[in-house]
Design the sequence.
């Protein structure tokens, strides 16, 4: 961050000179922006400069240091106050603590002690600045009004550059299990490390966007040209190979008032231009390309459609798989945007379902398809998931329902989940245990529970957590979360609130109402 801004309020000229000299000579990371010889004058300087730290004497004319501290605590809670006084009085120190005064130093000031205090303040205020800037970004993205002094202090440059970053594919409203949540978190931490290698912490302000895969980033330094920003983001993409990343940036600068609308526009641009498996930077010139979403590139190629229809008539599944595989390869080579891929696959799936009699009408194939697209990291992975779904559909029409499609078999899955909540349950681990594919497991849950596997597991875990809260109020939230399989207490709290509308601690405090 920039140098700490300091205001000194001291009615003794000699003491003022001494403190000013110490700061100028011994504290290179600080600068004095104003001085005042009484509390009233000092308060006016504080209102004008919005400093990071105020050093004030206690006994001064017009307004004493205690009243100044009280005014600062009430009106400017983000400013740190330090009292420097010749009075070693516990009563003064106690009163100062009530007003949130950071420290109470005695005159004459010990230089080493003062330097140590300034080092601590630099760290504390640096962290606070980043937290406040992030909070301001969140509030602006929600369309909320902010106090001008608060915004001006932490985002003083009204003109900024904006980027929206998305990890992997466009997300739909699917629950993710704890493993996937942790995986996404680790992907972002790795990305953040690389971003900080290209941009200093003072140049970045970021927060989560519409979901766990989207992040909004402000570049706060005016000196950073768009060409240099693109260059650094390009270097970042070259070094990041854990996921494919899509970045949309504004070509020009954005005012804070424009932030919300421009962010929403960039998110729409990404939704229209994202390509499975391809990392890319989308320029703001691409904003004009949003309107052409329903173009002819979304239709299936006529020759392929004729061949597919013939394979369906002949029940030639081998040929159908080969032809569809070639189409996926062609889409990959064309770098077809995900939205166009979704449209084509919906068309393809409609043709297949319309040609098949006696299909399982209880299953939502389109929901399963969208889930597969959302989870795919490239076209090859998408084809495997898509054909797995088609293969299960073919199996269903080739033979009568087998044991794995029975209610007894599904109940065995339910029992297994309920009996292993504390263990690390994932869709893949349960599939491996019962010897079926992820797609078929998803079909069973859509058929018998009308929800996804992850939704069901989270629901069972939350219900069990509620039981534990009622049974034993002495258990900590961390212990309850671990008992039902949530090792991350923050993720436990997030999922609990999704299902109950309240936090675990609030629910637990009311749990006595439910005890017998």
Sequence:
């Amino acid at each position: 961050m920039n140098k700490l801004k300091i205001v000194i309020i001291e009615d003794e000229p000699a003491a003022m000179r001494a403190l000013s000299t110490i700061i100028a000579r011994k504290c290179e990371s600080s600068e004095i922006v104003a001085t005042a010889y009484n509390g009233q004058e000092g308060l006016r300087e504080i209102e004008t400069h919005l400093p990071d730290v105020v050093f004030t004497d206690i006994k001064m004319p017009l307004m004493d240091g205690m009243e100044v501290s009280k005014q600062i605590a009430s009106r400017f809670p983000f400013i740190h106050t330090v009292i420097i006084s010749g009075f070693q009085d516990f009563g003064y120190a106690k009163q100062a603590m009530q007003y949130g005064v950071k420290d109470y130093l005695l005159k004459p000031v010990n230089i080493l002690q003062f330097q140590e205090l300034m080092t601590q303040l630099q760290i504390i205020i640096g962290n606070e600045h980043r937290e406040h800037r992030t909070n301001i970004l969140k509030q602006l993205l929600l369309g909320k009004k902010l106090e001008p002094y608060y915004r001006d202090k932490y985002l003083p440059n009204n003109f900024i550059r904006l980027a929206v970053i998305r990890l992997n594919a466009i997300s739909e409203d699917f629950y993710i299990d704890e493993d996937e949540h942790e995986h996404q978190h680790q992907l972002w931490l790795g990305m953040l490390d690389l971003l900080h290698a290209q941009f200093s912490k003072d140049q970045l302000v970021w927060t989560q966007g519409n979901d766990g895969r989207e992040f909004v980033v402000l570049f706060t330094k005016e000196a950073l040209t768009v060409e240099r920003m693109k260059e650094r983001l390009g270097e970042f993409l070259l070094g990041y190979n854990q996921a494919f990343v899509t970045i949309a940036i504004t070509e020009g600068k954005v005012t804070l008032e424009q932030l919300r609308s421009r962010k929403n526009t960039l998110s729409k641009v990404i939704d229209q231009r994202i390509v499975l498996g391809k990392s890319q930077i989308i320029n703001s010139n691409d904003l004009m390309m949003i309107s052409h979403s329903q173009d002819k590139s979304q239709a299936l190629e006529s020759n392929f459609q004729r061949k597919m229809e013939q394979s369906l008539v002949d029940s030639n599944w081998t040929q159908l798989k080969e032809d569809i595989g070639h189409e996926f390869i062609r889409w990959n080579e064309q770098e077809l945007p995900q939205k166009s891929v979704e449209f084509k696959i919906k068309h393809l799936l409609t043709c297949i379902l319309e040609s098949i009699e006696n299909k399982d009408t209880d299953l939502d194939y389109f929901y399963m398809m969208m889930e597969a697209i959302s989870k795919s990291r490239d076209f090859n992975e998408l084809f495997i998931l898509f054909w797995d779904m088609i293969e299960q559909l073919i199996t269903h029409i080739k033979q009568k329902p087998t044991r794995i499609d029975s209610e007894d078999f599904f109940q065995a899955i339910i029992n297994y989940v309920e009996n292993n909540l504390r263990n690390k349950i994932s869709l893949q681990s349960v599939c491996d245990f019962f010897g079926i594919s992820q797609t078929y497991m998803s079909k069973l849950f859509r058929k018998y529970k009308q929800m996804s596997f992850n939704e069901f597991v989270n629901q069972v875990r939350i219900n069990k957590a509620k039981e534990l809260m009622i049974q034993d109020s002495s258990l900590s939230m961390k212990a309850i979360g671990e008992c039902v399989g949530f090792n991350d207490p923050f993720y436990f709290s997030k999922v609990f609130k999704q299902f109950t509308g309240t936090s675990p601690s609030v629910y637990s405090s009311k749990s006595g109402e439910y005890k017998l």
User: Anything to note?
Assistant: The mean pLDDT is 82. The first helix runs from residue 13 to 26. The two ends are 57 Å apart (CA to CA).
